[in-house]
Amino acid sequence: MAVTLVDPEGLPKIEAYRQVSVATGSKQVFIAGQVAWDAEGATVGEGDLAAQVEQCFLNVAAALAGVGGSFDDVAKLTIYAVDWTPDKMPLLMDGIARAYGKLDIAPAPPATLLGISTLDVPDHLVEVEATAVID
């Protein structure tokens, strides 16, 4: 495994993810932002943030598998959420938990959550991009 996830001393322990990833592999993988489209390009979970988050993470996993990787290789995630307010956090976390359960992911890599005004398609509520490092 090319990525090791850690919580260094002096930083708070966040249950949802690790604070730092250390990458030692030789192949960097940059995955474009994934939205809640299925393989045919239809939006999954219209109006349902948790369902869309889950689909985004499943799409990231499919992209990784397509280049010989898995979520174990993810060094960093960036999540863009439309019209973000803190009260949406339980829905976001529910979608992540559902995806992580299906993909058997633990612990989670470092992540950044950004609130944005809109995405390319009005029905999309969230977009997830990833950077991975593969041996």
CATH superfamily: RutC-like
Count of DSSP strands:
6
How does the overall form come out from the CA principal axes? globular
Number of separate structural domains:
1
> Helical region count?
2
Q: Major sheet: order of its strands?
A: 3-6-4-5
Architecture (CATH level 2) name: 2-Layer Sandwich
Q: What structural category do the secondary elements indicate?
A: alpha+beta
Give a short account of the largest sheet. Answer: 4 strands, mixed
Quote the distance from N terminus to C terminus. Answer: 7 Å
The overall pLDDT average reads 94
Q: Approximately what portion of the residues adopt beta-strand conformation?
A: 25-35%
Helix content: 10-25%
Q: What is the CATH topology descriptor?
A: 60s Ribosomal Protein L30, Chain: A
H and E order: EEEHEHEE
Give the helix/strand layout:
Blueprint (H helix, E strand, L loop, with lengths): L2 E4 L13 E4 L3 E8 L14 H18 L7 E9 L6 H15 L7 E6 L9 E9 L1
Parallel strand pairs: 4-5
Antiparallel strand pairs: 1-2, 3-6, 4-6
Helix pairs in contact: 1-2
Entry summary:
InterPro entries: RutC-like_sf, YjgF/YER057c/UK114. This protein is α+β, with helices and mostly antiparallel strands and 135 residues long.
